[in-house]
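Sequence only, no structure available. Ideas?
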Amino acid sequence: MESGTSSKRPNILLITVDQMRFDCLSILGHPVVETPNLDELARTGVRFDHAYSATPTCVPARAAIFTGMKQTSHGRVGYQERVPWNYPNTLPGELAKSGYHTQCVGKMHVYPARSLLGFHNVVLHDGYLHYNRDKQNTPVQEHFDEVDDYLPWLRGQVPGADLLDLGLDCNASTVARPWALPEHLHPTNWTVSQSIDFLRRRDPGKPFFLWMSFVRPHSPLDPPQAYLDMYKDLDIPDPVIGEWAMKEDPEGNGFNPVTSKGIVPKRRLRTAMAAYYALITHIDHQIGRFLQALSEYGERNNTIIMFTSDHGELLGDHHLFRKSLPYEGSAHIPFIVNDAGGHLDLASGSAVSEIIELRDIMPSLLNAASAEIPGSVDGESIWDLARGDKEPREKSWREYLHGEHTQGIMSTQWITDGREKYIWYSQTGEEQFFNLTQDPGELHNLIHDPSLQEKIQYWRSILIHELQGREEGYVQGGCLVVGREPVSVLSHIKQA
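Reply:
I predicted one. C-alpha cells follow.
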C-alpha cells in the first residue's frame, strides 16, 4: 500500500521546544526574530494566543504533556529530579494502545531517564542535566554516559567530544558563543535527522505518533555561526523592565552567568539575546527540513501537527532570567496547530483567544486520533476552539488558569484569564496584579489601585478556592497564609 494511505486515521507530529517565549514568532510582529516555517504553520493553521505553562519548568511541564493532568493531579508543583514517573495513563501509551506506532526523539526529562512512558521507542537527548552528570551521586545506570543517545553518536563523529566543550553551563542564560563543530553535528540537527530516519523505519501499516522534542533554545546559547551572524549586529530592543522591578544589584548577581536575576552588563546581555533568537531561527529552519521530508514520504497531508514549548524564558525582562516565575516571558508559550489534510475542519489562519494549557495536549491529540480519553485527564480537547464558529461548542471553556511554582523565597501562586493576572508570593505575602490587555509587559503593578480592590479580591478568592485543602496549608480560615513551607512534589506522587 502506498505511503500516506496506510490508515484512515491521521499521523500525529508533536513538536516541542524547550524554553521558547510566546512572542518569538515573526508572524506576531516580533521586531527581530525570523520564524518562516512556524509562521507558515500558523498562517495555514490555528494559533492560540493565550497558551500557558501552569508550572513553568521542564519536569512539571512535561508531566502535564504526558498525563493531561493539572499540576495538583500529576503532583509536580515545582522542579525536583529523581522522583519516579509512575503514571498509568500517558499520551504515547494511550496512542500505542489505540494502534499508533509511537516514537520520541530528543528530550523527555523523566525518571528513570530511559523510561518509555508508553512509547515504542525513544532516541534520547535530555541535554546537560546536572543530576545525571554527577559522577559521585548518580547511579551508574542513570549516568549521562549510559542513558543519552546523542553523546555517543557525537563521539563517534568527533572522538572525545563532550557537552562541556564550549564552556557554557546548561543554565547560562546570559552568556553565549557559536557552536564550534559543523552544523550537522548540533543537537538541533541531530534531532531532526533522527526524526527523518524514523519516517524510514516506521511501521507502514500503522499511523504514527512522533514527538520531536528539541532541547534548544534552552541554554547553552550555542547557535551555529551562520545563525548568530543573522542577529549579532541588529538593533535588538531592550527587555521590558517593570516599575516594580529591582533598581540596583548590590550583590552583583548579574555577573553570574547562570543568574536567575540581576543587572547584566549590556553587551553580554545583547549577545545572549542575539544567540537565543538565533537558536530559534535555527530550530525553525530544521523544522522546515523535517516538513520537506514529511512531504517526500507522502505524509504531509495525512499528519496533524502541533507545536509548542514547555515554558518560556524571561530573557532579562524585569532583570529576571530563565523560567519558573509567573510573568509572561516565563509562563506564556507559543502554541500552533496545523492540519494540512483537513481532518479536523479547522478554521485555518485564525487565532484563538481562550486560555489553554499543556494539559490540553493529551486529550486533543487522543481526540484527533479517535482514541479514548482516560478519566484521569484534567485537560480538554481544543479542537472546538480551533474550528471557530463552524460548530457550536458543547460547553463553555475554562474561565481562568491556576499556576504555581515552588522556588524557595520566590515561590509563587497565580491566577490568569489571559487578560488579567493575580500573583501571590507565598513566602513573603507580596501580591501583584496586572492588566495584561493594557499592559502586556507587566510594567505596572496595580495591586494597590483603590478602584480595583473589588476585582483583586475576586481573583484572590479564586486562588483561595484553588488552594483550599492543600497539604502545605496555604489556606486557613478562608485566608491565604504566608510562610507555609512549599514542596516541589505533592505527597500522593512521592508515595506512589
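The chain has a mean pLDDT of 95.
Hope that gets you unstuck.
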